[in-house]
Amino acid sequence: MIEVIKTKHIGFCFGVHRAVSTVMREAERRGEPIYTLGPLLHNPQMVEKLKAKGIEPVEDVFRLDKGVVAFRSHGIRRDEEEYIRAKGLAFIDTTCPFVKRVRKRARYLRKNGYMVVIAGDRRHPEVKSVLSYLDNDGIVFDSLCSFEAKKIGVVSQTTLDQETLSDVVRVLAARAEELRVYNTICESTHTRRREAVELAGVSEAMLIVGGRNSSNTTKLFESVRRVQPCAYHIETADEIRPEWFARLHRIGIAGGASTPDEIIDRVERRVKNL
Fold this sequence. Notes:
alpha/beta; Rossmann fold
């Protein structure tokens, strides 16, 4: 008999739940297509479900001259927002409030004379969004950065892990006369990672469920695997292989912030039925 244990905080986080429920409600109310700039959330299965309801991701907003546009939960670039407003397009702002907080802190730092450093992945849409609202006058930190400034201000991508932020701050502390840090990591991200790591310590194997294009899910998996090498990152229950759990009795399940409950539930049932 396999015992399956899930982390306490699982399924959509607040920001993703807010974005999905808002656009689904608006799609039903308006009865017309809604376009999202890139995927509304980083979960391929949920994006397909939204498409079936007339919520379609587009990569280039500048080709739209009509319709309703939804700002995705990660935020959009400033030039994209300006185009939408200038065109008079109807829009639904589902940007996560915690992402907006990063943007607000970054702009405050820049206004007060700090060199703004964003700790995060320069390829992530959230980081691109924040940087654009600084008129690209900021630095996305990685180990190859080489600069010095008297005043450095730091914000972090909401899905960053605390260890990476601490490493960034430690490096920058040696380069600045004044260093101001805003820890803008989402509390939900931190809590989910802590719970998953704790569960990994008492489980014989772990399943991390979520999109492979999801930054927070990938980082969650990496944190868990350091504690429990027998860990697997899957998107759906169909990827589960029975041989993973041969002679095992306690399996832990954790999910990314953009993984819907229905996918988690199917994974749990599949493992229990092995």
